[in-house]
Amino acid sequence: MKRFFIICPLVMFGITVNAQQKKNLNSYISYATFNMVGDEATPYVETYITFDKGSLVYTKNDAGQYNATVNVTIMFKQGESVKNFGKYSLSSPSVADTTGINGFFMDVQRYSLDNGSYTLEVILEDENNKAEKPFKVEDQLLVDFPEKFCFSSIIGLESFSKAQTDGNNTKNGYDIIPMIMPYYPETINKFSFYAEIYNAKKHLGEGEKYLLNTYICAFENNAKLNNYFFTKRMNAKDIDVVISSMDITNLPSGNYYLVLEARDRNNEIIGLNRYFFQRSNSSYQIDNSLMASINTDEVFSGQINNLDTIREYIRTLSPISTLVEKDYAEELIRTDDIKTMQQYFYTFWSSRNKIDPRQAWLDYYAQVLRVNASFKSITSKGYATDRGIVFLKYGAPDRIVQSYNEPGAFPYEIWHYYALGSQRNKKFVFMTRDIVTNDFKLIHSDAIGEINNFRWTNEIYQRTYGTYNDYGVDEVVNPNSYGDRARDYYDNPR
């Protein structure tokens, strides 16, 4: 049995650990930030905690039914100061029979907070399973609603409808059911979402209009998808509600952003927000007709006539490829069809830079050569190692901490990026068990779409403090003895 605990600002990053063969609470947590309008407008955070019914222990109630109870503690802290909190017991829906329990139930709460940075701390405990210690996790949260045009968080919705009465799931006249996670399997073909826009009238003026562009773009390269773009003319108000749906039946498997982009009458961007989600769609296939129309005698890739060379060039594209492109490329390089490889290679770079795809490739290849020189391991070229992949996806980090001789720790590096697109202050932690191999594995990052492991220090200090089982599945090892610096380096980049 596996135990999952996910906490995210409406983006997904998961933590998976081994658990004992018994009941373990499985929970999925997300949150979103919104603002109240008016003279005394106060921002607030909305939390969504979803519980796997089958992971809880049920006891009989007075009505002869069965319930599970979860003790929930949520705190928003700045340093050691608690700015807002919730502490309550949550009861599951009643069931008549505890055999074969499945499905989920969700709890929604709202907490007022001033603009600022916070540490969100969540503690969950199964009241009927005290043998399992309470589970605790933290995340960094930013509440930022300036006195100008801005967006709330975007929420992916399982469903929405006009509200008949107000309830916990009611927002601006709609009853909304948030998605458990931002993951859309092929059984879900409708993508619904909700967001709010603030201060349009204050920013633009009474009676002004603006354009709201809504589109889906690829996570890896921000390329807009032609069939998933629409525009709506909006009247400037104190608050505008955006609630809509898209048909994603033909959206390929991959990682994506839903983007809301506001432009004024001068076509200048005045506001933008994004929602990360994942799509699984095994029925989608790449359309080869466009590639087949490319005359390789007239494009730069047609000059790559060596079969092994074109295969290797295609392999180097993996770090910046979408999931569909990766799958297609892996199949293609198993063949001897050099012409299709040339066509694919040109199509790939033309989709990134229509004006000069050759120069785009040459610029990228210069970086490939750089990572091959810096990050190659005994068994892999640099572009195939974790550090090389991150470098090619995001560029050079702004800061690197290299700690190869820390007492009690395996060699590790912490990369710090000041900005990754719209993300700020993101870090990547790499570790190796043997410095000679130069094969550093990514064990944690707080960037969207990357592996997230809040027990990453356990990995680093396993050399001294043993395995997870020595400390318990939920323990986090953060040594503070002399020379143990990993957590300090992470929290306070040099």
Description:
There is one protein chain. This protein is α+β, with helices and mostly antiparallel strands and about 500 residues long. About 20% of the residues lie in helices and about 40% in strands. It has 11 helices and 26 strands. The strands form 6 sheets. Strands 12, 13, 14, 15, 17 and 20 form a 6-stranded antiparallel beta sheet that branches. Strands 2-1-3-4-9 form a 5-stranded mixed beta sheet, with no helix packed on it. The chain has a 5-stranded mixed beta sheet with strand order 16-22-21-18-19. Strand 1 and strand 2 form a beta hairpin. Helix 5 packs across helix 6 and helix 6 runs antiparallel to helix 7. The two termini are about 40 Å apart. The relative contact order is 0.09. The N terminus is likely disordered.
Beta-strand content estimate: 35-45%
Global shape? globular
Query: Low-confidence spans: pLDDT under 50, at least 5 residues?
Result: 1-21, 468-474
Query: Which radius of gyration do the C-alpha atoms yield?
Result: 25 Å
Count up the helices: 11
Task: Give the proportion of residues in helices.
Answer: 10-25%
For the largest beta-sheet, the strand count, sense and barrel status come to:
6 strands, antiparallel
Number of strands: 26
Question: How does the helix and strand content classify structurally?
Answer: alpha+beta
Report, as a whole number of angstroms, the end-to-end distance: 40 Å
Average residue pLDDT:
87
Essential attributes:
alpha+beta, 6-stranded antiparallel sheet, 5-stranded mixed sheet, 11 helices, 26 strands, 18% helix, disordered N terminus
